[in-house]
Amino acid sequence: MSLLAVHDLAVARGGLRAVEGVSFSLAPGQALILRGPNGIGKTTLLRTVAGLQPPVAGRIELAEDAVAYAAHADGLKGALSVTENLRFWAAVFGGGDIGPALAAMDLTHLADRPAAALSAGQKRRLGLARLLVTRRPLWVLDEPTVSLDAESVARFGTAIRAHLGQGGAALMATHIDLGLAEARVLDLAGYRAKAGQQVRPAGFNEAFA
Amino acid sequence: MLALLKRDLALATRAGGGFGLGVAFFLILCALVPFGVGPETSALRPIASGILWVGALLACLLSLDRIFALDHEDGSLDLLATAPLPLEGTVAIKALAHWITTGLPLIAAAPVFGLLLHLPAGAMPWLLASLLIGTPALSMLGAFGAAITVGLRRGGLLLSLLVLPLYIPTLIFGAEIVRRGAEGGSTATPMLFLAGITAGVLALVPFAAAAALRVNLR
């Protein structure tokens, strides 16, 4: 039984097809890394899998409430402390202790600091710690290592491996080696949408899509 | 859901949250009117109910664009959309938080501002009652406007243009309650209409606002 199965998926950004004909599946314990040149549609594909936008064509098979999504913005409130930020997300996603997540991303000593006073890398670590408190099986990660130093990248790689070990899965777009030798790589360059294709089905109305 | 409400209330009351801004604006407005039309009771009394309601409405408008814009900027809105909360619930909670931080202080301050405008003492309970029933609709309609304009640069002005016409029914019946209360007439009819408008808005608008958010998040 796979956590995520994508069949012949096409996604569009700003009304233009980005990639099409993409199929893959992820079983528990597997990780898939999306590669491809800038603008190929990695972010759009990840947002589609996360349910933030509908696919143009194809199917996504996914259990309900399975996705934890992390993108360029970390969703942090500068006026709240590290603990308050994380506790909020833990409560939204159904409770749970935030201590292990703080420890895993090396944030314990920063717990009482307002998020506004964190450095870019520390903010990113807090954003990634949020993944740990969601307790969701499928992590959808868009460039998770931006502004992380080498040590933090390794730390995050360890966190992903632990997540995979607990039966989770990860789908990510990244250009950095996370030290996940077991991860499969999908290069989207071969799926670039052909020009002149019908982007939208007949009778499409943007206002009611 | 409770966590979201708590977070929004905490954010509103901390530095830069804008708590109290609406009441301060309300105060300035009510203090300016006597300068404009003259301080005589005969001039102020007939317009007091209308001024108080228009002031409450404009004060409410001030903080509307914060409902979703800040969460959109820092990515929280994307994350909330993928969270187990239904988006309709998120909208309702954020409107509730807006009402608690803007509507409730306005209601508490309104009797004092009524004195500035020579509102008869007999009308005070009606002013409080009409604001209590009417302002939740203002926050909820405002959340709808904020959901439509989220992600737009300088969306605040567009938001005002979209939302103010929607406030007209609430304004008409709210001010009518206070006017009738001041004259000692029966307030039952406008009260029922105002309550009906608020109930309808609270029931239907979260769905419209959530649909608007979904379109804007793509």
From TrEMBL, chain A:
Occurrences of domain ABC transporter (ranges): 4-207
InterPro entries for the chain: AAA+_ATPase, ABC_transporter-like_ATP-bd, ABC_transporter-like_CS, ABC_transptr_haem_export_CcmA, P-loop_NTPase
Keyword Transmembrane among UniProt keywords: no
A GO term for molecular function: ATP binding
EC number: 3.6.3.41
Biological process according to GO: cytochrome complex assembly
The entry's keywords: ATP-binding, Cytochrome c-type biogenesis, Hydrolase, Membrane, Nucleotide-binding, Translocase, Transport
Database matches in SUPFAM superfamilies: P-loop containing nucleoside triphosphate hydrolases
Enzyme class, broadest EC rank: hydrolase
NCBIfam families registered for this protein in UniProt: ccmA
The protein, known as: Heme ABC exporter ATP-binding protein CcmA
Native source organism of the sequence: Paracoccus siganidrum
TrEMBL record, chain B:
Broad class of the protein's primary localization: membrane
GO BP: cytochrome c biosynthetic process; cytochrome complex assembly
NCBIfam families given in the database record: ccmB
Gene that encodes it: ccmB
Spans through the membrane: 12-37, 43-64, 96-117, 123-150, 157-178, 190-213
Keyword Transport attached: yes
CC annotations in GO: plasma membrane
Family: Belongs to the CcmB/CycW/HelB family.
Keywords for the protein's UniProt record, in alphabetical order: Cell inner membrane, Cell membrane, Cytochrome c-type biogenesis, Membrane, Transmembrane, Transmembrane helix, Transport
Membrane topology listed for this record: Multi-pass membrane protein
Subcellular locations according to the entry: Cell inner membrane
Protein name: Heme exporter protein B
Function: Required for the export of heme to the periplasm for the biogenesis of c-type cytochromes.
One function term, GO molecular function aspect: heme transmembrane transporter activity
Organism: Paracoccus siganidrum
